[in-house]
Amino acid sequence: MDLPKLDIKAEILSNTEVGPNVYEMKVTGEALARQAMPGQFVHVRIPAGMLLLRRPFGVANVDDKGTLTIYYRVMGKGTSAMTSLRSGETLNFLGPLGQGFSLHAKRPLIVGGGMGLAPLLYLAKQLHGAADVLMGGRNASELFWERLFRPYARDIFLTSDDGSRGEKGFVTNLLPRLLSQESYDCIYTCGPEIMMRGIAKIASDHDIPCQASLEKRMACGLGACLSCVCDTTKKERKKICKDGPVFWAQEVFAAD
After folding, report:
1. CATH numbers and ranges of domains, the chain
2. HEC letters along the chain
3. What share of the chain in percent tops pLDDT 90?
4. Which pLDDT tens digit goes with each residue over 195-230?
5. pTM of the model
């Protein structure tokens, strides 16, 4: 059963740049943090007068004090406006929303790229150090995520498009080798769709269960507006905000 969604005014504790145009925002929200599961998201109302629609952000971390963390990349008017917010100001948060990751795995592998790594951070924490992490970026500066994952990961593998950090290439280049070396029982992924499709195909080829967190613009976040509908492999229509954002890969990515 879904828990009631909370609509709260959260106080900003910090809002700092942690990577190239990527910001970390920490807010108070004890009740929301207590309910949030890895893979779920919150819908944030940008300050009045700036934008009409809320913006979705994956829950990246919560702590015992009720602090909730999100990460965002400056992409447009909404995220640009968010950079001007300071500690002590408030934002309206709706959540936690959506379906999260299954935490059944004993020997999991987390694979992510870009801002898709944000919701995977809380997953790594909740897996209590059991997960290896494979992450990719265009260059070394985009792999600042390594230090954020380090406290929660068993081992971390890096790839970069230009070879400036880790192995040159994409995560899909390195993934088959890792799967041949370790007996992973589940792969969790979030990031660009083309990356996740490749990961889903490799996971299927190795007969390893895979969960993928889809990213799409969401207007209401509650499954009412149908702006985030996707087609499944069974030709069903699913709402990413309510039925997802986490799906078993075979539900949304064809194996061929």
Report:
1. 6-97 (2.40.30.10), 108-252 (3.40.50.80)
2. CCCCCEEEEEEEEEEEEEECCEEEEEEECHHHHHHCCCCCEEEEECCCCCCCCCEEEECCEECCCCEEEEEEECCCHHHHHHCCCCCCCEEEEEEEECECCCCCCCCEEEEEEHHHHHHHHHHHHHCCCCCEEEEEECCHHHHCHHHHHHHHCCEEEEEECCCCCCEECCHHHHHHHHHHHCCCCEEEEECCHHHHHHHHHHHHHCCCCEEEECCCCCCCCCCCCCCCEEECCCCCEEECCCCCEEEEHHHHCCCC
3. 75
4. 999 999 999 999 999 999 998 766 666 666 767 788
5. 0.93
